[in-house]
Amino acid sequence: MTRKVADCRRFPSESHCTLTISGEEEEVLKAATEHAVSVHQHKDSPELREQLRNFLEDEKTG
User: Fold this and answer.
1) Tens digits of per-residue pLDDT, 13-22?
2) Which residues form the domain of 40?
């Protein structure tokens, strides 16, 4: 299974967040959603989760 990565550095924010989360897709999606809500004050919603899922990239290896 391909690991996924969510990297806040791809999206400029007022907090200048540099967090990167990697793991299996559902793990990353859950952690990224919790991070978006608690740090970036987004509202947890199906739309947010879909945006985050589209934001995930395959982890580069090697």
Assistant:
1) 788 899 999 9
2) 4-58
Nearest to 16 by CA among 44, 43, 40, 51: 40
Stated length of the chain: 62
Is residue 44 a contact partner of residue 30, using CB atoms and an 8 Å limit?
A: no
Q: What is the pLDDT of residues 2-53, one digit of tens each?
A: 899 999 998 777 888 999 999 999 999 999 999 999 999 999 999 999 999 9
Q: Say what the pTM is.
A: 0.88
Ramachandran region of residue 41, left (φ > 0), alpha (ψ -120 to 50) or beta? left
The CA distance from 17 to 26, in Å, is 22
Report the domain count for the chain.
1
